[in-house]
Design goal:
There is one protein chain. By secondary structure, this protein is an alpha+beta fold. Among the domains are: about 5-80, 434 Repressor (Amino-terminal Domain), CATH 1.10.260.40; about 195-295, no CATH class. Helices cover about 50% and strands about 20% of the residues. It contains eight helices and ten strands. It has helices at about 5-15, 20-25, 30-40, 50-60, 65-70, 80-135, 140-155, 165-190; strands at about 195-200, 205-210, 215-220, 225-230, 235-240, 245-250, 255-260, 270, 275, 290-295. The strands form two sheets. A six-stranded mixed β-sheet has the order 1-2-10-7-4-5, with no helix packed on it. Helix 1 (about 5-15) packs parallel to helix 4 and helix 4 (about 50-60) packs across helix 5. The longest helix is centred in the middle third of the chain and has 56 residues, at about 80-135.
Length: about 300
């Protein structure tokens, strides 16, 4: 059943001269979801949260103000109140666990201080007793030293001759240390991998990956999140819902661009060659984010 909202969005799209395929390329939202929005059929959507996110993206693409559309058609658009309840509860539980752990730490501190004081007193007593024992036997220590000197004086003269061998060892040690220093300098001269945000426009952020031998990407979910992954040719490599604890890996070493559509940034971690990407835009302020990573392979010498 076509809704008033669906008709309004469709008319705005046609006024812009966009086909559904054009809108799919612009928004990175699958065509079947766009059709569902225009027809008011939300059953095929990943969830209520994504219905609202897709409608907002649709509005921005055709030039309609999302805030006004959501207010005027609030009866037609699903609310996400039920989806937000677990998040709120988890935050309350986190605060509770933090406060309880803090109380346990404060209770443990006085006991720790007492234990340290007792250990310090025992060490001081032991040092004092050792000093007393050392003072009582000076004659024994003197006689032992005299015997050691006598033994050294009676050693044959041949033991003093081979002085050239340590010299070779010293030279070998110097050569090795110089080689280590050169190797260290070469390592320092090699540029390290960098991943920097170079441009941010609304929900889109462009990063540049430089001085990397490879480009391996991993997406991991801390909660339910919808993601889409595209390559340099704008081919869809993956699109779907990642459940909490799920991971998805991609190798873009032969590509120059990775385009990621992150439906819920606060629940999605992005790792590039084992290093976690930091969102330039706060994930609490902008829930859906598009991440574009341009890859420059390390120059071969």
């Amino acid at each position: 059943m076509v809704t008033e909202l669906g008709n309004r969005l469709k008319e705005a799209r046609e006024a812009k001269g966009y086909s559904l395929d054009d809108l799919q390329r612009i928004t990175k939202i699958q065509k079947r979801y766009l059709i569902g929005i225009e027809e008011g059929s939300y059953d095929a959507m990943p969830g209520k949260f994504y219905v609202r996110a897709f409608i907002k993206q649709y509005c921005e693409a055709v030039g309609l103000p999302p805030e006004v559309i959501f207010e005027e058609h609030k009866d037609e658009i699903p609310t996400t109140y039920e989806d937000e309840i677990p998040v709120s509860l988890s935050r309350v539980q986190s605060r509770k666990s933090v406060s309880e752990s803090s109380t346990k730490v404060f209770d443990f501190v006085p006991k720790l201080l007492i234990a340290l004081f007792v250990i310090g007193a025992l060490i001081a007593a032991w040092i004092f007793l050792q000093g007393k024992v050392g003072d009582k036997a000076p004659e024994t220590q003197t006689s032992e030293n005299q015997e050691q000197v006598a033994v050294d004086e009676n050693q044959p003269a041949e033991s003093e001759k081979p002085e050239e061998e340590p010299k070779d060892k010293e030279e070998t040690g110097e050569n090795k240390s110089s080689e280590d220093e050169k190797a260290g300098e070469e390592k320092e001269q090699k540029p390290e991998q960098t991943l920097e945000a170079v441009n941010t426009t609304g929900y889109k952020t462009t990063y540049e990956l430089k001085n990397a031998d490879e480009f391996k990407l991993e997406l991991s979910a801390e909660g339910d999140t919808w993601v889409g992954v595209y390559n340099t040719k704008d081919e869809l490599l993956f699109e779907g819902l990642l459940k909490e604890g799920n991971k998805k890996g991609f190798d873009f070493s032969s590509d120059k661009i990775a385009y990621l559509v992150i439906g819920n940034a606060s629940n999605t971690n992005i790792s590039v060659n084992g290093n976690q990407l930091e969102y330039k835009v706060s994930s609490t302020d902008v829930v859906r984010q598009d991440i574009i990573i341009n890859y420059e392979p390390k120059a071969t010498q």
